């Protein structure tokens, strides 16, 4: 785990200019199978005065065993949260970046449906590219920030919430397609996953438009 915990320094600065920060982070971008997911975590000025939950980090820096507990505490900490999805079929149809935009838009709409006001909201997006604005049906103020999942506590919350949700979903898909061992690799390009593809071919949950047979092994 990272020695440096994320803080609310950026969120507190932004909340001097806006009423709500909706923080987003994606998981599953590089997987060969399964959906991409974008977590959303909402922070307001009152919430930004609360202590960051113990152990909260970017989901990649939290062990798989600890993630569900950290995600539960993150969910209880933020004012609202959600996970938006785009399926493997949508990735094939529109490409990965637009699929990320669809998932992000669905995550944002979900928190708006929970009563979060869009007026006065700023979207804090991990990364260097705004993949949301071209897809979302109404204008939003979006601020991409590189390494926000590492440095900004609300984005870390979105990251771990989305990671646990997607891992759970991939474990459920594993029951119908056990040879691919998605309960272990979560749809990423492990050796066991690629070997199963060579023997069995692609399932309906694979991203068929990708050059899967030649995908690099990620772990």
Automatic annotation (TrEMBL):
Domain RNase H type-2: 19-219
Coiled coil: none
Name of the protein described by the UniProt record: Ribonuclease
Keywords noted in UniProt: Cytoplasm, Endonuclease, Hydrolase, Manganese, Metal-binding, Nuclease
Cofactors, names only: Mn(2+); Mg(2+)
Cofactor notes: Manganese or magnesium. Binds 1 divalent metal ion per monomer in the absence of substrate. May bind a second metal ion after substrate binding.
Gene3D superfamilies, A to Z: Ribonuclease H-like superfamily/Ribonuclease H (3.30.420.10)
Binding site for a divalent metal cation: 25-26, 126
Cross-referenced InterPro entries: RNase_HII, RNase_HII/HIII, RNase_HII/HIII_dom, RNaseH-like_sf, RNaseH_sf
GO biological process: DNA replication, removal of RNA primer; mismatch repair
């Amino acid at each position: 785990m990272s020695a440096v915990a994320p803080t609310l320094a950026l969120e507190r600065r932004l909340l001097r200019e806006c009423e709500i920060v909706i923080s987003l982070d994606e998981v599953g971008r590089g997987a060969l199978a399964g959906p991409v997911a974008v977590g959303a975590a909402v922070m307001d000025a009152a919430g930004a005065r609360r202590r960051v939950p113990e152990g909260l980090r970017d989901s990649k820096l939290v062990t798989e065993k600890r993630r569900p507990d950290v995600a539960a505490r993150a969910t209880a900490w933020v004012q609202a949260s959600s996970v938006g999805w785009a399926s493997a079929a949508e990735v094939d149809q529109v490409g990965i970046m637009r699929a990320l935009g669809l998932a992000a838009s669905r995550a944002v709409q979900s928190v708006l449906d929970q009563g979060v006001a869009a007026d006065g909201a700023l979207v804090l997006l991990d990364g260097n590219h705004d993949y949301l604005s071209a897809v979302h049906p109404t204008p939003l103020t979006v601020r991409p920030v590189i390494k926000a999942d590492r440095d900004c506590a609300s984005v870390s919350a979105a990251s771990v919430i989305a990671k646990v949700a997607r891992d759970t979903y991939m474990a459920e898909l594993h029951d119908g397609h056990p040879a691919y061992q998605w309960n272990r690799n979560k749809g990423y390009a492990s050796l066991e996953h690629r070997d199963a593809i060579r023997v069995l071919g692609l399932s309906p949950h694979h991203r068929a438009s990708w050059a899967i047979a030649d995908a690099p092994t990620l772990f």
